[in-house]
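Please go through the protein record below and see whether the fold suits the sequence. Record follows.
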Amino acid sequence: LIHNKHMVSGPLVLTETRNKQSNSVGSSLSTNRQNPTPLLLNKHYCIQHELHTQTVSMMSFNEIAGNALLFFLVFGMSATVDIHMLLLQLKNIKAILMGVFLQFAILPVLGFLVVKYGTLDRSAGISLLVVTSSPGGSYSNWWCSIFNADLALSVTMTAISTLLSVVLMPANLLIYSRYAFDHADDADVVDSLDFNSLFIALTVVISAIGLGLFASAKVHSYKFNIYA
């Protein structure tokens, strides 16, 4: 009898529960048919949130991969530099001052003139100002290595210009963006720059140069230089 009671009451309870669920679903569907706007807004918000999450994750991956490639490129170039030649280049004051003057005085002025009197739109103008105000990168080291130029001087200039760019690059951008664009937009130009990514890249370059020079001083192997 108890077994039969459970067998009978089970379907009855299940049937009653299903009826309640169907009634609640039917009422919600009727409400959504009367006012479908919240449902559409929720669906649109979910799609936007998913796209934003995918974009952020892709940007993070690209940034990490780019910084890793930059580190290995600068490290490889720095590891092939003779540390004694580097110390000798630090005494070449005229060449270093000439490189700093061309990097942070002449090149930003040329970029400013192109933006001011050229037919560039706002985004292209900001990009050109950033490029012309940036320090020397690792491609100069790469070209010097390929054509058997003075790699020690190139790495020295990269290290010095990268250190100076912490102060000189934001200063150049503040000065030239003020006169290249309207005064009402100069704050937007500076605020639109991602200084966190900039300082991360500068840190990557400085650490790669330091570790590469340290490896060059400690590891005396022709095979290591070939691999680097």
Observations:
- The CA atoms of residues 153 and 171 lie 26 Å apart.
- DSSP finds ten helices and no strands in the chain.
